[in-house]
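pinging the channel bc i need a second pair of eyes. not urgent but kinda urgent?? the chain im working w is below, pasted from the shared doc
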Amino acid sequence: MECALQLEKLVFDEIQFIRIGMRSENELKMSMEVNIGMNKSDSQKRKVTITFTGIKEEEYNIKIKISGFFVVTGSENEYLVENNAVAIVLPYLRSQITLLTAQPGVDPIVLPPMNVVEMLKENE
């Protein structure tokens, strides 16, 4: 049985860490944005982009943007395809966030597992 969703490429579009000051007790404010697009010239191609932004006042700002390029075959339900594509890209983002913040003088950010369906509902 062939999978209806195949990851062709995965790229980090942007990785940014700006130190403002030393370790602070301020709360980290995080947001995530998901964009899902279809290639106009090829209806089987999808691009999923997730942008994570974090601001810890008086300490740092972080922004990571990742894109996954997928090929969709068969007549799968579009809703399921989109959710699965986001679920495939998300662990790469989580890993990069932790790697970037697991440095001396910074409390590492370890994102918990996320309910992709609920995250997409909130993003609409």
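so The chain is about 25% helix and 40% strand. and The CA atoms of residues 89 and 112 lie 15 Å apart. — does that match what u expected or am i reading it wrong
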